[in-house]
Amino acid sequence: MNRFKKILKWSLLSILCLAVALFTFGYWFMSLIPKPATEYDITKTVTSSLPYLSENQIPNRGRILTVVTSTETMGESGKATGYELTELSRAYYVFLANGFEVDVASPKGGQPPVVIDDEDMGVYDFAFLNDPVAQQKTKNTLAMAEVDSSLYDAIYFVGGKGAMYDFPNNHHIQSIVKSLYRSGKVIGAVCHGPAALVNIKLEDGQPLLEGKTVSSFTNKEELFLIPDAETIFPFLLEDKLIESGANFKEGTMYLEKVVHDQNLITGQNPWSTWKLAETMIEQMGYQPKKRVITSEENAIQVLGRYQEQGYESAKKMISEMAVNQVAMNRTLLAKHSIVAAMQWNLVKSFELVRLVKYAKDQLEVETTRDEH
Predict the structure, then answer these.
(1) Which end of the chain is more exposed for a tag (fewer CB within 10 A), N or C?
(2) What pLDDT score does 18 carry?
(3) Dist CA 184 CA 178 (whole Å)
(4) What phi and psi values does residue 38 have, to the nearest 5 degrees?
(5) Inter-residue long-range contacts of 316-321, CB under 8 Å, 24+ positions, other chains counted
(6) What is the pLDDT of residues 199-211, one digit of tens each?
């Protein structure tokens, strides 16, 4: 009996010590994450306060059609979905800043469902919510059946899990894409947006994607977030793209990846939106307008450097950013350290936490305002 009590005593003591250690680490870890700036309310951002949009405006060069999903739930799961706001807002403003009028369409028309992730929102995303013209377009989207493809120089399919349901078999989407493709116009799609392309066949019966190099939200990314994705969605997008004849290029989970195959430009995830939109501008024959790179993008670059060249190289990059007073969103580094821990990649998780700590020491003043 005494032996049992000793074992129980030491077990409880061990659990208590572990709990204290975890609490201490958690408290320290949270101290590495910057607090929101109080001198500027990011939620009140308007387009006139963003130099990228308000200064050196480019004369009209044409028109681009953006397409969002009309689907509100993920199949029979009952889980809410819609289009991803950041994947629309950021591309929308790249197109606008580079001289293109932008229309917003959806399979059904009218007001589509939208997904807003507060943790991912930046100045351009809040500006979009405060932009009366942008809001009028998103609340009164064109129905795909009403779209005249001859008016557009490019089409861009916004992601959001709802796209998996109403993009693949929409005949109006297929007809418009084929028309633009025949005319040599640019076709862009990000994250789940490439679902619009999987069932399109050209006049000779060959799949549009046959032999094309593309990217999209990957199986790994999908299953990490939704373990039962294979039963919720009609297919996994990566698998379906390959089945449609595409050469699929997979980047690192949740990092920027854009694939450019002539007039077809695809992006892996939301973090690919900026580069994808600017690549579309380049493909249309224009040099993208210069803008201030966001702190989130700089964090993605650090993570990419770490993935490709290791800890020391990423640390050096952070030092260079500090010297040049470049804002870098270390919260995003912290999130990736948590993802690595959830995948039991403890070495990566530890090194990313070290980078977060180093970034805090180097970048004592970090702004979330990017252009302010």
Answers:
(1) N
(2) 53
(3) 10
(4) -100, -20
(5) 318/355, 318/358, 318/359, 318/362, 318/363, 319/362, 321/362, 321/363
(6) 999 988 899 999 9
